[in-house]
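Module 6 notes. Inverse folding takes a fixed backbone as the condition and produces residue identities as the prediction. Think of it as a translation problem where the source language is geometry and the target language is the twenty amino acids. Below is one complete input and output pair. Work through it position by position during the lab.
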C-alpha cells in the first residue's frame, strides 16, 4: 500500500488504463443490435468502480475536494452523453427509413421516393398520378430513347402508388 501512496500518479494512470481496457473489451462483446448484454454491463460497472474508487482515493491522498472528481470525470460524463445522443439519432433515422420502406414510399436500394420517380407530390390526385405516369412511361420506353430499367422503375412506382392509395389501375 505504501508503494501506491508514493506513486499516486502512476497508480491513477494505471487504474485509468485498466478501466479503459475493460470498457473496450466490453464493447467488443456487446451485441451489435444495441441491446445490453450482461457481460458488457458488468465490465462497464467494474471499470467505473475502478475509476471512481481510485479517483476518490487519489483526491483524498492529495488533500483535494471532491469537486476535482467532477473535473477529472468530465470526460466520462461527456462520453456517456454523446453515446446516448448518437444512439438516439441512429434509432430515429433507422425507424424513419424502415417505416418509409415498409410503406413503399422509399425504395430500399436507391432511397428514391416513388413519388419522385413520377415527379409528383404525395398528395397528388389519381388523375394527376395517371397523367404523370403516362408522360414518364412514354419517355422511359426504350423505343423513345429510354431504357428497360427506367421503364421498369416507372411502372413499379406507379403500381406502388396505386397500392398505397388503394386505387384500382
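Target side of the pair, the amino acids:
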Amino acid at each position: 500500500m505504501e508503494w501506491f501512496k508514493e506513486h499516486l500518479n502512476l497508480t491513477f494512470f494505471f487504474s485509468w488504463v485498466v478501466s479503459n481496457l475493460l470498457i473496450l473489451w466490453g464493447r467488443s462483446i456487446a451485441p451489435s443490435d444495441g441491446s445490453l448484454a450482461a457481460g458488457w454491463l458488468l465490465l462497464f460497472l467494474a471499470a467505473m468502480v475502478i475509476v471512481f474508487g481510485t479517483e476518490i482515493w487519489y483526491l483524498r491522498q492529495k488533500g483535494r475536494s471532491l469537486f476535482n472528481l467532477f473535473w477529472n470525470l468530465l470526460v466520462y460524463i461527456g462520453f456517456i452523453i454523446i453515446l446516448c445522443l448518437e444512439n438516439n439519432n441512429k434509432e430515429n433515422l433507422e425507424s424513419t427509413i424502415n417505416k418509409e420502406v415498409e410503406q413503399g414510399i422509399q425504395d430500399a436500394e436507391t432511397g428514391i421516393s416513388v413519388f419522385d420517380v413520377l415527379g409528383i407530390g404525395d398528395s397528388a390526385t389519381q388523375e394527376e398520378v395517371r397523367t404523370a405516369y403516362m408522360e414518364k412511361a412514354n419517355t422511359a420506353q426504350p423505343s423513345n430513347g429510354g431504357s428497360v430499367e427506367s421503364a421498369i422503375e416507372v411502372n413499379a412506382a406507379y403500381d406502388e402508388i396505386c397500392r398505397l392509395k388503394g386505387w384500382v389501375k
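Reference fact for the lab report: The CA atoms of residues 78 and 84 lie 10 Å apart.
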